[in-house]
Amino acid sequence: MNKGFKPRVGRKYIGSYRPRMDGLEKASGETEYIDDIALKNKFPGMLYAKILTSPYPHARIKSFDLSRAEKIPGVKAILTYKDPEVASLRPFSDSWTDGANNASYDSMWQPLTKDRRALSDHVCWVGDDAGIVVAAKTEESAEQALRSLDIEWEQLPFFLDPREAMKPGSPVIHPEINPDSNILPWNPSCGPHIESDEATTFGGAEVEELPPHIVAERGDLEKAFGESDVVVETTSKYSNPTQGVLDNWCCVAKWENDNLTVWSNSYQPNQTRLFYSEMFQMPMNKIRLISPYVGGSHGRGDSGERPFFLYTALLAKKTGRPVKFKHTRRQTFCDTRTEQYAYCKAGAGKDGKINGIYIKIIGNSGAYSGHTMSCLHLIPLEYVEVSMAPIPNLKVETYGVYTNKLSSSCMRAIGNIELNFLIVLGMDKLAEKLGMDPIELTLKNFGDNKAVPNKSLEGVLREGAEKIGWGRWHKPGEGRLYNGTKKRGIGFSFHNGWHTSWQELRRGPMQVIIRINPDGTVQLDAPTVETGPGSNSCCIFACSDTLGVPVEDIRWISTMDTEISGKDQVQTDSAVSHILPEGIHAAALEAKRKLLDLAAPKLGFKAEDLDIEDGRIYVKKEKQKGMTIKELLWKGDLIPIVTSVSMKLPGDATGVPFMAAFAEVEVDTETGQPEVLKLVVVSDCGTVMYATGAEAQQIGGQCMGLGETLTEEIIYDEATGVPLNFNFIDYKMPTMADFPEIEPVPMEIWKGAGEYGACGIGEPVLCCTPRAVANAVYNALGVRIDSVPITPDKIINALNSNLRSE
Amino acid sequence: MTEDKGVSMEAAKKNQVKNGIREENGESTPYIVKIKVNGILHELKVGYDIQPSHTLAHVLRENLGFTGLKVACDEGACGACTVIMDGKAVLSCMTLAIEADGREILTIEGLDKNDPVVEAFAEQSEPGYGTAIQCGYCTPGFVMSARALLDKNPDPSMEEVKEALSGHLCRCGCYPAIAHAVVHASEKIAAKGGSKNE
């Protein structure tokens, strides 16, 4: 029996093992998601919108004829890119904020790559939204109308490989963005964050003006390599998995007079309202966004400025009826991780001290810019400032390149998982060449400032090493055989956490409203859309711990409604479960002070002599003396006590904690089949906010982490550019049968600023998995597979070429 | 309840039935599909209330309001739409509504609030496994498959649990906790005097 983790500070709820607050509601099927609300019996007269999709990887609509489609029974409206209400809309980016803050059109996160239109004659991948959308009484009628469109296409040259697309003289996919090349313009706003009035920088350090495509540069790299005893070079390729969220993108738009209401599974409803306001040039108070629970985030909604929001609303206006748009399963395959071709060169002295690292990455942006430059600029910059702080000489160079694959967007652990796959490979190679234990090499060179070893990094690596049995690590390929043909190996990887007060400096203020009703119950408006991580439980726990009201008496407002809720904390950056409770703690302290001030004269004691537990105010020294909150407030006008806070995190530069994964694999040398036998996931959480929830993240993150390590990949037909596996049968995500033994190890070593000083772990938990498994495969076989997914064919080929070279 | 098992292929071939409307003696009579859902009989006129192409998932959600089941893939790959038909877990997105004619359907709305499976999923929280639920979108499907498994086999081994539930996708990755929740549900059934095999 696993005894579980013991918190550093004992609290009743925060840090505990207990059921989720929404467990029963979800287990009994009562929770409503957007598709359960967007039903005809709830929206009488509702129409269904369907969009034409591109059959070609790159093409333009030369002409179209709607006359046959318009005659299909049930068709109520057809909207095209030529209609003035569409054509007059400005171009935009589907990733105009990173989700952490709201951004106006002018302060858009990626201002140089406004490559999206609400509807366009220009299509950039097979399946792209093409410029004609139909609203009809039934989905079948709308689909029939789409099939009845007569369209003349002009096919254009296309690229799937960014290394081809970036060659000088290649036909250009987005001339409106860069007339000369498919290389994305270098985007200054992806460095220092857009947040707030003052220009903030990372960790207080000034970000120098650097030439385009150079993310970071320090010291003298050539000299560093020259002085190194060993230098290694390595290349890796990262693939293009997708979020695979079950709750397909969906919205219903409805106009009443000139007021627009949209129900959707956007998990950033305030930003989506701003998107509408800016695109339609409408006042914000005439637009209302409502988001219920969302069936999974995994990063999808950070690229949330989707054209369908616009054309669905325009169709609703045109028809005077509510209009629903929902992606089919095929259509949900609409964006991916940034596929990367990466190179790393690293040099070190005999003592294992790294002198310099050079990194170059070519990223496949796909059809649109999406979050490509977040992935290729912001993330490496963070990594350089944190994990690589002790490394004196380095240079990081990155290129985002348009092609005609799916757009590269936000996905859980964006940029970090790819970077980890590259850099920790370099470390493994260096360690081997130096004859050092890679754990010792890591501890000599990585940390959140120049001092090594870093306490947090050392803590997670030592713990993980013990759990996996690191003593069993052997020289690559030299282990014994199991069952005649199988070989085993172990490997690890490590990464910094990245969402801590250090970074949340850049995040906008959070808003929290606590209303204590006269009967002693509490309404907690901690505005966020619960997408699964259990932030709602963390919010309620923090409120209960600080206010002294039992969790059963606290109602967390689960539907985000821009008409009534405060500004939401978006479920991005793995940040809500630890940030929002800091605001709740502050608001609850304030609410508690108000209660105690009211109770003090009634009890004949000073407020500071009183406390609250289980909804009862009591005298600390004479616990039997006291009164319930209801007894205090149930009088007169029955006015509730309302406290609201709008605050930022303390933002002290407290550094960051570290995370690690250790894997044991078994590989069948006859079939090439890799099998992960065990995975240990170690996370220094700073403070574990909710132990069961944290372990659920550590284990659950591996559905994505192991999936993209072993099986998940979107496959294209090279000749036609057609994606071949847009379904959940051929796009293989792990099921229960595929899950190995996973040991979650939550830890508290580092502590950030604030009451809890926690670090988000939702993304870091999967970030180390691909590299840990790849290093374990190398340990087993003595040959490296340096691209994910690590498939049997790659393993067999690598074993064969190894045999040939021997 | 009618013995007629819906629109037969023979009748369809003879063109007597078009879009679910039976033509007899030159007169059209809509065929009525009768489905018992959670103990209550629903009659649906084919060609009017429902179309022959409609899936059971569509009709349960859109016509009858049973929105606990989810349609996530609509092609039998994720299990989120699972309901119990005549005691067996079926994918309601891969079952036509007319195939359910004369059948008894149990949806998650038909389970008691204190159903041991529902409770076990909600309560799952011991160290080492995480929660059985995160976003919750796949949960009703898992609950119904687990319920069908335990109805037939009240004391399944871990291997049997994995076998029964591996047709479901949980992108949040709660698999180990779900498997343990099923074991706990089995214990609850036994504790309530159920037929747990020893």
Q: So what's the overall shape of chain B?
A: elongated
- Looking at this structure, what is the CATH superfamily of the largest domain in chain A? Aldehyde oxidase/xanthine dehydrogenase, a/b hammerhead
**What name does the CATH topology of the largest domain in chain B carry?**
Ubiquitin-like (UB roll)
List low-confidence stretches of chain B.
Answer: 1-7
Distance between the termini of chain A: 48 Å
Output the radius of gyration of chain B.
19 Å
SS content category of chain A: alpha+beta
**Largest sheet entry of chain B:** 5 strands, mixed
Question: Helical segment tally of chain B?
Answer: 6
Termini distance of chain B? 39 Å
Features of this protein?
heterodimer, A: 806 residues, alpha+beta, Aldehyde Oxidoreductase, domain 4, Aldehyde Oxidoreductase, domain 3, 4 domains, eight-stranded mixed sheet, five-stranded mixed sheet, 22 helices, 23% strand, B: 198 residues, Ubiquitin-like (UB roll), DNA polymerase, domain 1, 2 domains, three-stranded antiparallel sheet, 6 helices, 30% helix, 17% strand, elongated, disordered N terminus
